[in-house]
Amino acid sequence: MFQDKVQVLWNRKIGPLYYKIGLGCGRGIADADPGQFIMLRLSGRIVPFLRRPFSIHRLIRNEDRTEGIEVLYRVVGECTQKLALLRPGDFVDVMGPLGKGFRIPDGVRRVFIAAGGIGVAPLLFLAFSLRKKQIDPSGCRIFLGGKTKTDLLCGEDFRSLGMAIHPTTDDGSSGEMCFVTHPLEAAVRKEPPEIIYACGPPGMLKCVVGIAEKFKVPCQISIESRMACGIGACLGCAVKGKELTEKYLHVCMDGPVFDAAAVEL
Fold first, then answer.
1. What is the DSSP letter of 123?
2. Are 154 and 58 in contact (CB under 8 A)?
3. 47 by DSSP, 3-state: which?
4. β-pair partners for 70
5. pLDDT in tens, the chain (265 residues)
6. Domain range for residue 68?
7. Residue 106 domain flag
């Protein structure tokens, strides 16, 4: 883990409310796992005072050298409004990588990934990691869901890796007009994968976990949570655990990625 002021490499608008920001933080980031996150604070700003958590969207690599990370974010509040104003050459204060990421079992060949809106943020890094482990992309299917077509993110990135995309929107503006869990369940029923990965809003994750339990498929979920410190000090990101010995788990330390069977949604 490192904590340092790092330079903004780019800050690109990719949709009405969505941006991708590149951060030059090669030191200490090369061994990051997909699903881990950073805590970010705007340098020289008093407000907002607390750091904010952001998933690592992907590693920025130049040949065999890691030069930084890219973060996908949605403008929703004061911090992200100010983040969207940053330009190349500006600096931000970054701490990370933090938390526990996705685990890729040896020998898996058929993988389903479900993303709801901005929940896709850590899942592209996971897709790159699957390719790095030489898992055949034809066995990986990506289920992307959003309220409308502008909320469907990173489709071309997944396609460039050779992975099939199944888009859905609530309003029917792109793909099927349904929740992302509908085609996911149909695909699982037809030919169950060896593992399901998911990130998105709580209702979606609860449904994904239900599908995984119904068809007895291993499942890992990334839980989004507000957190003040990112290192287990404030205890503000508690989630209820299923095990009697672990009444509560903390997203920043025990997650943000959990086995579906470990948490109560």
1. H
2. no
3. coil
4. 22, 58
5. 888 999 999 999 999 999 999 999 877 898 999 999 999 998 765 556 778 999 999 999 988 889 999 999 999 988 899 999 999 999 999 999 999 999 999 999 999 999 999 999 999 999 999 999 999 999 999 999 999 999 999 999 999 999 999 999 999 999 999 999 999 999 999 999 999 999 999 999 999 999 999 999 999 999 988 887 888 888 788 888 886 556 889 899 999 999 999 998 8
6. 2-98
7. no
Domain CATH code at residue 6: 2.40.30.10
**Are 58 and 92 contained in the same domain?**
yes
Name residues whose C-beta falls within 8 Å of residue 19's C-beta, 6 or more positions apart in sequence.
Answer: 11, 12, 13, 72, 73, 74, 75, 83, 84
At 133, which amino acid appears?
Answer: K
Q: Can you say whether residue 235 is alpha, beta or left, with left for phi > 0 and alpha for psi between -120 and 50 degrees? A: left
Instruction: Give the whole-angstrom CA distance, residue 199 versus residue 124.
Output: 11
pTM equals: 0.95
Write the CATH number for 127. 3.40.50.80
